[in-house]
Amino acid sequence: MELNQTAYVILGLLSIEPNHSGYDMRKAIQSTVGYFWGESYGQIYPTLKRLAAGGLIAPGKSASIGRKRRQTYVLTEPGRAQLRQWLALPFRNDPPRNEFLLKLFFGREAAPGVSIAHVQDLQERNQRMLATLLEIEASAHAGNPPNPHFPYWMLTLSMGKAMTQAALEWGETALTELAALEGAAATTAQAGGKRSKKKGAETTKHLHEKHGSARTKARGTK
């Protein structure tokens, strides 16, 4: 049975917490792997049906919330075996689609201040992200019962912190370099304007002298 990445996210979540409904999984993704894995929520329910039909998950205890009953699922042994098989495969790092980097790459064509504004915006976002990660880390260590998955969660979190902190350091360097680049460009443009103005004045003076000489010769001829 060929599975997509959404299927492995579901199998992984059920390996940690059984009896999850599709709604529960969506919330779990938002608060955990959603920080580093973009999941299509529209794929959750169709994938649950495929996994159940393939015997990789099974219906669990139905949960009642108000008047609604949500079907929950548990991981089966074949499902756990499939998850472990996938975990053993080499990982793929597909090239990300990062609009910030794309705009920075073509930044020389932008108006003055645009690239600096983008980096400042990124800095603010990364500062908020770091604050969120630190908050998650503090709450994770506060009074949670022992969980065998916990060390792996913390390793994932620590990498997120390290990458965000590195991005903030890069941002400070980038702002300095961009300010220097724009300052040099402004100086060059100003110098070019002065040269153009001076050349224009010299051209005007030359034309006046030329016309004055011509008028003098005309008088002499008369």
Describe what this molecule looks like in 3D.
The protein has 222 residues and is mostly helical. The protein has two domains: 5-88, Arc Repressor Mutant, subunit A (Orthogonal Bundle), CATH 1.10.10.10; 99-197. The protein is 68% helix and 7% strand. It contains seven helices and five strands. Helix 1 (5-16) crosses helix 4 (77-88). The mean pLDDT is 86.
The secondary-structure element order is HEHHEEEEHHHH
Total domain modules: 2
Low-confidence stretches: none
Instruction: Report the structural category.
Output: mainly alpha
Span between N and C termini? 107 Å
Strand order of the largest sheet: 1-5-2
Shape: elongated
How many DSSP-defined strands? Answer: 5
Query: Which strand-content bin applies to the residues?
Result: 5-15%
Mean pLDDT: 86
Largest sheet: 3 strands, antiparallel
**What's the number of helices?**
7
Please give the structural blueprint.
Layout: H1 5-16, E1 20-21, H2 22-31, H3 44-53, E2 57-59, E3 63-65, E4 68-70, E5 72-75, H4 77-88, H5 99-105, H6 114-140, H7 150-221
Antiparallel strand pairs: 1-5, 2-5, 3-4
Quickly describe the structure.
This protein is mostly helical and 222 residues long.
Features:
2 domains, 222 residues, mainly alpha, Arc Repressor Mutant, subunit A
